[in-house]
Amino acid sequence: MPVLKQIVDGSSGAFLVGFKVPPVLFFDEAMIPSRSRHNITRQFTKDNPHKWGTKLFMTCCADTAYCLRYVAFHKSLT
């Protein structure tokens, strides 16, 4: 899990470079499709088109929908 955290933190911080944070933000969730049994962050969601995958929580710009930061959800961290 520490390797995944380093990758997420490094790539998520790169989104903020060169972009001014707007006053209005929105929070969204997304799913990265994955059926691999070796994916430790894989989750099942019954109602989504992609039933298996990694769930992300994202902070986005309300005007442009540009992703400013994201966090991968892992059920053992809750």
From TrEMBL:
Name this protein carries in UniProt: PiggyBac transposable element-derived protein domain-containing protein
Originating organism: Phytophthora megakarya
